[in-house]
User: Fold this.
Amino acid sequence: MLTLNPKELESRVFYSYLTGTVAPRPIAFASTIDSAGNVNLSPFSFFNIMGINPPLLVFAPNNRGRDGSKKDTTLNLAEVPEVAINMVDYAMVQQMSLSSVEYPKGVNEFIKSGFTPEPSLLIKPPRVKESPAQFECKVIETKAIGTMNLYICEIIMAHFSEDIIGQNGKIDQRKTDWVARMGADWYARISESAMFEVEKPNTKIGIGYDAIPASIRLSKILTGNHLGQLGNIEALPTQEEIIEFGKNRKMQDIFEQATNGCAFLDNLLHDEASRLLAQNQVKEAWLVLLQNPSLTTN
Assistant:
């Protein structure tokens, strides 16, 4: 384990560890405007949702590393505390990267990166038309800490492309193709092939990790993820369910292999349970595991 004290390292060195581990991070593609009407467009990955009622987005442009000067976004927000935060998907990632070039103040990054400015409804800065999700925001609080300028922004209007809306009228994550920031020059593409579902435990009270028998917790086959799934069941199967399940062909094959010395029963049961858990068949996995005669249910 590499242990580091941030105070003992140059800030940019520790920054590389932070951005390589606190990842992937969503990208706030922020459009701002100064009092003279000059528009700036720049991406920031120190960004996330921070409130529901009211809906809040928070992002933090750092000062420039080379000389400590404030970036154009920070200067603009001091004059006009409004920002259009546009989400970035894969179709626009290279243009987004191009916009991050440090052009002189007053240069319009919409033009330099080839994006289309879309007039906002309630704020002065334009939105990025190509973005599948756009948020018009008012800055409600600003905090400067060290080299960081933190902006707490209230969403006052939101726009979503029909391309990412499902039949229920909500965002269909399978239709999105978001891009997130990693460390160095790395990005992550969060398309359907990279996504998976985890059942929310707050809809029920699971038995918990501590209620799993020790022989299962200490398995050399089942992983921490498997145990988390097993601990999320509300109640163990009944003895009647276990007995009935043990009569199926798959279980009979496992018992036969164990009897003939092909493998230990525990290993065979744990292998089968891991296969079922990969398909999120938690109760069936428990029914397999509890075929071990040494285990009993309440």
Q: What stands out?
A: The first helix runs from residue 11 to 21. Residues 128 and 237 are 53 Å apart (CA to CA).
